[in-house]
Amino acid sequence: MASRKVRSPTAGIVSTVHRNVGDAVGEGEEIMFVECMKMEIPVAAESAGRLVALHVKPGDSVSEDQILAVIEG
Question: Which of 1, 13, 19, 21 has its CA 20 to 30 A from that of 57?
């Protein structure tokens, strides 16, 4: 199985996480939001699979291109 890393589109703060490790996700499905300059930016799965790792939680600061999660499938 191929693993795909979900990366932050921008620097900011994780405001909401919608999925848990073990959840199935569809291509384009929102996994979380990153807040940047009072805007919530959705972070979506680029491919379908199972969420095998979450590296952040709400309130965490993230940098652009930081790995947020890993999807396998």
Answer: 1
Q: What ranges do the domains of the chain cover?
A: 3-72
Q: Which of 30, 70, 28 is nearest to 50 (CA)?
A: 70
Tens-place pLDDT, residues 32-64: 999 999 999 999 999 999 999 999 999 999 999
Rounded Cα distance, 14 and 33, in Å: 6
Residue 59: DSSP 8-state: T
Neighbours of 60 (CB within 10 A): 15
* Helix or strand holding residue 14 (H, E): strand 12-17
Architecture of domain 3-72: Beta Barrel (2.40)
Least Cα distance to 73 among 21, 1, 18, 16 occurs for 1
Query: To the nearest whole number, what is the mean pLDDT of the chain?
Result: 96
